[in-house]
């Protein structure tokens, strides 16, 4: 989700981590609003064409990511909610 947001130039002023960070916002939407389930908390992220660490930053791509399970029928609603961040 963070990659999608960054590639589409959304949520540019919201950091990845922290109380009001994208990670927490995405968790709240998927788990609390859409009845999804977190299955991995701190999974290392590997970004193709990241050229070292230059694209990894609190306002770019994260070093690690949470992994979720969500009903595929709820994906349109998830994207509707996050595209306004």
Q: Sheet with the most strands?
A: 2 strands, antiparallel
β-sheet strand percentage: 15-25%
Shape: globular
Strand elements, count: 2
Q: Structural class of the helices, strands and pairings?
A: alpha+beta
Calculate Rg over CA atoms: 13 Å
Tell me what you see in this structure:
By secondary structure, this protein is an alpha+beta fold. The protein has one domain (2-82). Helices cover 31% and strands 16% of the residues. It has three helices and two strands; from the N terminus they run H-H-E-E-H. The chain has a two-stranded antiparallel ribbon. The longest helix is centred in the N-terminal third of the chain and has 12 residues, at 22-33. The radius of gyration is 13 Å and the shape is globular.
Which structural traits does this protein have?
alpha+beta, 31% helix, 85 residues, two-stranded antiparallel ribbon, 2 strands
